[in-house]
Design a protein that fits this description.
elongated, two-stranded antiparallel ribbon, 6 helices, mainly alpha, 4% strand, 50% helix
């Protein structure tokens, strides 16, 4: 869970945290991501999104399953196939701050007004963040100066 989820979650990727780069360094060397290579169930794949979405729908049709990530959250870069509907799965998982959910999420960054608001807020947030970071440093320097003044020989 990141601080951004508490401050401005609507500007933080719709509340979704992005960390994995799918082993970019391995892909650059012509290899596949480590998680795909070592997956014990051999259920992960990587490739062009259109091809993966087509495979997901074919597999869902074959097993009578459901595809998640095709259109949800404006289409994610991770697509899941499940034999259980995602609304049922969503009811069974623990949710809360920093905990994922499987319900649809609106693409709040699709609106030009949201982009304008984000552009207006960003400089202010940056200045406030810098001030918050340097206030303890300034207090520490002031404290050190007072200690130096007290320890000076008269």
């Amino acid at each position: 869970m990141g601080l951004h989820l508490n401050l401005l979650p609507q500007y933080a990727g719709n509340g979704v945290m992005y960390k994995c780069d799918r082993c970019y360094h391995r892909i650059a060397d012509g290899k596949i991501p480590a998680c795909v290579e070592v997956c014990p169930e051999d259920v992960q794949q990587i490739g062009p999104r259109d091809a993966i979405v087509s495979q997901a729908h074919a597999l869902a049709e074959e097993i009578g399953g459901y595809v998640y990530g095709d259109k949800e959250n404006s289409g994610t870069n991770t697509v899941y196939v499940s034999p259980v509907p995602f609304d049922i799965l969503n009811k069974s998982i623990e949710k809360g701050p920093g905990e994922p959910h499987l319900k649809p999420v609106a693409d709040v960054m699709a609106s030009a007004n949201t982009w304008a608001a984000a552009l207006a807020v960003a400089p202010v947030a940056g200045v406030l963040g810098a001030l918050a970071r340097f206030k303890p440093l300034a207090a520490n320097l002031e404290s050190e100066k007072e200690n130096d003044d007290e320890n000076k020989p008269e």
